[in-house]
């Protein structure tokens, strides 16, 4: 057998078989649907029964030329001439297993953390099973759930080795793209496959279940954001601003519906700003309506500003539904550094859903990324607060697999490849409440429009449309409208500024943005 295709890795679960289904028939249908590796997992069978089942399973796997591995039991693997074994952390070592198995046997190891992966590399395992990536009913977990973000750090260790990696735990067709999108290292190492039990084993239609996973897996591609490519002779900055001008028109044409879960201080203002830009706001927070709203919305904003513990449920339901429906999620971790509750909540939310854009000031993004460089309160004075804001946003965007917006006197935005610095704005924005929150709503509005108008031809991308451009557009529009409003003779202070600002958002012309934008690109 040549190189193994780990993409759709079935771990058997006889106890989950739907009533009336024969195990071997079910296995065969799974293989017909595109399962590429099978692991026989029997936690309760006596040795003789395990061998009997493994031998029968092997005959079927052989028919489809699919390798079959045995969970835990090297003796069973030897007895049925399996292709290899899968070992847990409490089973025998790779070295011990290797000494009892044929030379070309495949040996995989369950890994829950980076130390496990380091050990597996040292032991020359053939592949690692990283889990549990999501919560699961199928196995009593003894370790914390990792989440896709945690997988990336483990994959990074595998760079430069030939060791393959699959993720396991709660993987379904409904979260597969989000899982694959999130589980990529900053060096762009992605998963080689996904291991599932219940999605196939408990399905009355295993062939369709496997086909669906297989189709989604094959379609997935890591989206390498292309470097900004302006037409010959057009400076890149000018090109970007031209694209922004186009997107401003698109928002007014498509009138995107923007679902916003935001704080009670800024909700009215955020809704008004969304309307002024050409979008439609819906400010709903009840958990029971999150999934319905996700189906009709063009983007979701999650802002934790005044959240209480019960708000997390709505946010996670809405975020997961947005990922499943593949609409943009803009995440605003307001004041994340301020309290332990916020910090913990933000970590949890980042693990539950994949954001398309994360927006914050220096203190917030420092807290979110565990950087000690900027304290949560000391963000007003020098520059953006980071010594190297360009490098910081780029690295965070790579790590979080999304666009990052760092706000401050200069705003920095990165898609993980390019970075833009935007120097528009007015200090009076700091004298009204929620100017940052309003920016979050604006980003969601432009990203929603960018997604809605994209052709959606590529099925392997979590969210369509140019989120980088959406974020740039929102920052430019908000800061330029603020500049214009602040200079009006009828604006005497923050009180008269706010309605003037909303009016200027309403009347701002794409050509105003083109003439006033102060943008610098760091390719
Ligand atoms: N191992 P399902 S999680 C067998 O974390 C197994 O190592 C895990 O089942 C690990 O796809 C798991 O039904 C169960 O969630 C996966
Ligand atoms: Mg085990």
Would you kindly provide a written description of the structure presented here, covering whatever features stand out?
- This protein folds into two domains: 8-219, Aldolase class I (TIM Barrel), CATH 3.20.20.70; 236-522, Ribokinase (UDP-N-acetylmuramoyl-L-alanine:D-glutamate ligase), CATH 3.40.1190.
- The strands form two sheets. The protein has a nine-stranded mixed beta sheet, with helices on both faces. It has an eight-stranded parallel barrel with strand order 1-2-3-4-5-6-7-8, surrounded by six helices.
- The protein has helices at residues 23-32, 47-63, 74-80, 94-100, 114-122, 147-158, 173-182, 198-201, 206-219, 236-254, 267-277, 290-296, 311-325, 340-352, 362-368, 389-400, 435-453, 467-486, 494-507, 510-516; strands at 8-11, 37-40, 68-71, 84-87, 106-111, 127-131, 164-168, 193-196, 257-261, 280-282, 299-303, 329-332, 357-361, 403-407, 411-414, 419-422, 519-522.
- The protein is built from 20 helices and 17 strands.
- The model is unreliable at 378-383 (pLDDT under 50).
- It is elongated, with a radius of gyration of 26 Å.
- The chain is an alpha/beta fold and 523 residues long.
- Helix 10 runs antiparallel to helix 20 (510-516) and helix 17 crosses helix 18.
- The longest helix is centred in the last third of the chain and has 20 residues, at 467-486.
- It starts with 7 loop residues before the first strand and ends with a strand.
- The chain is 45% helix and 14% strand.
- The structure holds ligand 3NM and magnesium ion.
- Ligand 3NM is lined by residues 11, 110, 129, 131-132, 136, 138-139, 168-171, 196-199.
- Residues 11, 110, 129, 131-132, 136, 138-139, 168-171, 196-199 line the site of ligand 3NM.
- Residues 8-200 form the Thiamine phosphate synthase/TenI domain.
- In the N-terminal section; belongs to the thiamine-phosphate synthase family.
- It comes from Lyophyllum shimeji (Hon-shimeji).
């Amino acid at each position: 057998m040549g190189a193994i295709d780990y993409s759709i890795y079935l771990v058997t679960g006889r106890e989950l078989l739907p009533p009336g289904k024969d195990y071997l028939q079910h296995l065969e249908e799974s293989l017909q649907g595109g399962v590429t590796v099978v692991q026989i997992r029997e936690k309760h069978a006596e040795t003789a029964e395990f061998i009997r089942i493994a031998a029968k399973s092997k005959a079927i796997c052989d028919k489809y030329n699919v390798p079959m591995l045995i969970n835990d039991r090297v003796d069973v693997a030897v007895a049925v001439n399996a292709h290899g074994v899968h070992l847990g952390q409490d089973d025998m070592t790779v070295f011990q297993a290797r000494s009892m198995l044929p030379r070309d046997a495949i040996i995989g190891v369950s890994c829950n953390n980076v130390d496990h992966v380091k050990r597996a590399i040292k032991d020359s395992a053939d592949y690692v099973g990283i889990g549990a990536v999501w919560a699961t009913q199928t196995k009593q977990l003894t370790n914390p759930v990792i989440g896709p973000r945690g997988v990336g750090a483990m994959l990074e260790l595998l760079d430069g080795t030939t060791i393959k990696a699959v993720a396991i735990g709660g993987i379904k067709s409904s979260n597969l793209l989000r899982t694959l999108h999130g589980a990529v290292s900053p060096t762009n190492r992605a998963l080689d496959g996904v291991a599932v039990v219940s999605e196939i084993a408990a399905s009355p239609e295993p062939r369709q279940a496997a086909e669906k996973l297989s189709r989604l897996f094959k379609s997935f591609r890591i989206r390498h954001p292309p470097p900004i490519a302006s037409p010959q002779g057009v400076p890149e900055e000018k090109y970007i601003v031209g694209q922004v001008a186009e997107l401003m028109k698109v928002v007014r044409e498509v009138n995107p519906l923007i679902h916003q879960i935001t704080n009670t201080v800024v909700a009215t203002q955020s809704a008004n700003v969304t309307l002024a830009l050409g979008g439609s706001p819906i400010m709903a927070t009840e958990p029971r309506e999150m999934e319905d709203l996700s189906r009709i919305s063009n983007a979701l904003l999650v802002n934790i500003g005044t959240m209480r513990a019960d708000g997390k449920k709505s946010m996670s339901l809405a975020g997961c539904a947005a990922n499943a429906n593949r609409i943009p999620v803009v995440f605003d971790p307001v004041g994340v550094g301020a309290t332990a509750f916020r910090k913990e909540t933000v970590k949890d939310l980042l693990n539950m859903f994949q954001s398309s854009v994360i927006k914050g000031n220096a203190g917030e993004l420092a807290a979110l990324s565990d950087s000690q460089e900027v304290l949560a309160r000391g963000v007003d004075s020098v520059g953006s607060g980071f010594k190297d804001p360009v490098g910081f946003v780029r690295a965070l965007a790579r790590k979080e697999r999304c666009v990052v917006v760092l706000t401050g006197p200069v705003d920095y935005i990165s898609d993980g490849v390019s970075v833009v610095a935007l120097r528009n704005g007015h200090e009076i924005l700091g004298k009204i409440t929620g100017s940052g929150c309003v920016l979050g709503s604006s980003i969601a509005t432009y990203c929603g429009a960018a997604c809605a108008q994209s052709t959606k031809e590529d099925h392997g991308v979590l969210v369509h449309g140019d989120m980088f451009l959406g974020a740039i557009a929102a920052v430019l529009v908000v800061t330029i409208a603020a500049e214009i409003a602040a200079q009006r003779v009828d604006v005497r202070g923050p009180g008269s500024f706010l309605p003037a600002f909303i009016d200027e958002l309403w009347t701002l012309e794409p050509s105003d943005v083109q003439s006033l934008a102060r943008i610098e690109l760091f390719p």
